[in-house]
Amino acid sequence: xxxxxxxxxxxxxxxxxxxxxxxxxxxxxxxxxxxxxxxxxxxxxxxxxxxxxxxxxxxxxxxxxxxxxxxxxxxxxxxxxxxxxxxxxxxxxxxxxxxxxxxxxxxxxxxxxxxxxxxxxxxxxxxxxxxxxxxxxxxxxxxxxxxxxxxxxxxxxxxxxxxxxxxxxxxxxxxxxxxxxxxxxxxxxxxxxxxxxxxxxx
Length: 202
What we know:
Blueprint: E1 5-8, E2 14-23, E3 26-34, E4 39-49, H1 51-55, E5 61-73, E6 78-91, H2 94-97, E7 102-111, E8 114-122, E9 127-136, E10 138-141, E11 144-147, E12 155-163, H3 164-170, E13 181-191, E14 194-201
Antiparallel strand pairs: 1-2, 2-3, 3-4, 4-5, 5-6, 6-7, 7-8, 8-9, 9-12, 10-11, 12-13, 13-14
């Protein structure tokens, strides 16, 4: 990979022209500009073999993970976006390897003081399981300010239609024999300090 090009300009501008790293079969690249007021940067990880986590003793899984982080907006009100895509996700136990590979996708965005996050899981369940959460959040880089008010309104939802036995085999719950079906449709409201849940689980 090419060497890092980092330059400092007038008015506190910092420019990262080129960054490239290869490690453990994955590549990490980054470039961008942090200006006096505005921001424009991107960080990309592609693809990370998840067997590395097993080798480090962190998680007994395999598959690949891709991630991208984009930074925009201004220092007073930055905009951040995170995209994560995990494909071919499998456990390494004998039972887990019999299951179809799973795919996990996640997206989080901070725009105009609103944080929204979405998570999807496919392959392990009959239908993709989906989680959505949205909450106001204050972030500023200069001067630094981070606020997540417990009185802020909370919105969210969760949907899943899953075979519990399949999930238990993926999670390697060897000492627990679980079976049955789970159907859940849950709504999340209220405030962070006092969340309210409604819907059905059966």
